[in-house]
Task: inverse folding
């Protein structure tokens, strides 16, 4: 397996830990600074971090919608909502609306278990309210996340199987979910997180070990909720070997899984549009929603 020391920590310039810069990280940093402001910054809850950035394509719609969830070790200080800005802008330019979520994380008041999960559920469910005032096609909604956000995107798609009102009394079911180079379960990632993030994050994020909190870890791990009953695109780059058990479990459950293996890609290549790996991810997402 390729060394994944840098894999989940975001840009060195925004991280509290120093990591070697890669060409994809440099390109992404430059693109982030140039992304135009969203069409709307809307709240989905009362906390200042419970907001999302809505971008709408030109035209009358209704538009398919991609809900984007950024990564960053499930922790404040690594990344924020702007991390998925370049991908959001690229999709919007192709005729797809995007709803890019901020949320509370480890280090934020109320973040971690269960607050982060409450935010993800509420942020996804807010698409219904957005569709009341904007031309969005709720039959063509995809939830996509990168790194730690891949785990949270999968978890968001698993909520109907949970039947847990804490995370949405009537969970919105997307047509598909996209996991970009991130884990589908938490417990097996403990230890790897300390390497990837420069410090342990999962046990603090969850408030204890899997032995201490078995029910919480079960609820928080999408792999334990399979099948979801929705199509899954699993984009594999630097963390490809770590994602294989999830891919196998999802297929065994009966869910439709479309693997996209990006040979030679680093962890950030898939979310850098305008470069070969990022463009392949954009095209794969466009295939899911149906080219407008």
Result:
């Amino acid at each position: 397996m390729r060394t994944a020391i840098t894999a989940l920590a975001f840009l060195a310039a925004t991280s509290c830990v120093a990591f070697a810069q890669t060409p994809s990280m440099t390109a992404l940093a430059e693109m982030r600074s140039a992304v135009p402001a969203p069409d709307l910054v809307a709240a989905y809850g009362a906390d200042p971090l419970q907001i999302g950035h809505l971008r709408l394509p030109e035209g009358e719609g209704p538009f398919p919608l991609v809900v984007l969830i950024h990564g960053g070790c499930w922790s404040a200080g690594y990344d924020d909502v702007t991390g998925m800005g370049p991908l959001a802008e690229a999709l919007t330019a192709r005729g797809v609306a995007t709803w890019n979520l901020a949320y509370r994380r480890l280090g934020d008041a109320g973040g971690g278990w269960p607050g982060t999960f409450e935010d993800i559920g509420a942020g996804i469910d807010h698409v219904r309210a957005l569709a009341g005032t904007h031309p969005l096609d709720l039959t063509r909604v995809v939830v996509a996340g990168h790194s730690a956000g891949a785990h949270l995107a999968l978890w968001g798609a698993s909520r109907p199987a949970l039947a847990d009102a804490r995370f949405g009394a009537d969970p919105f079911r997307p047509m598909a979910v996209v996991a970009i180079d991130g884990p589908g379960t938490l417990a097996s990632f403990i230890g790897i997180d300390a390497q990837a993030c420069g410090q342990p994050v999962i046990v603090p994020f969850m408030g204890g070990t899997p032995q201490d909190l078995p029910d919480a870890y079960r609820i928080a791990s999408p792999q334990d909720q399979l099948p979801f009953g929705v199509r899954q695109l699993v984009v594999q780059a630097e963390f490809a070997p770590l994602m294989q058990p999830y891919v196998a479990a999802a297929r065994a459950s009966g869910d439709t899984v479309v693997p996209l293996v990006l040979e030679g890609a680093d962890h950030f290549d898939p979310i850098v549009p305008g470069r070969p790996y990022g463009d392949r991810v954009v095209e794969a997402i466009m295939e899911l929603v149906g080219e407008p």
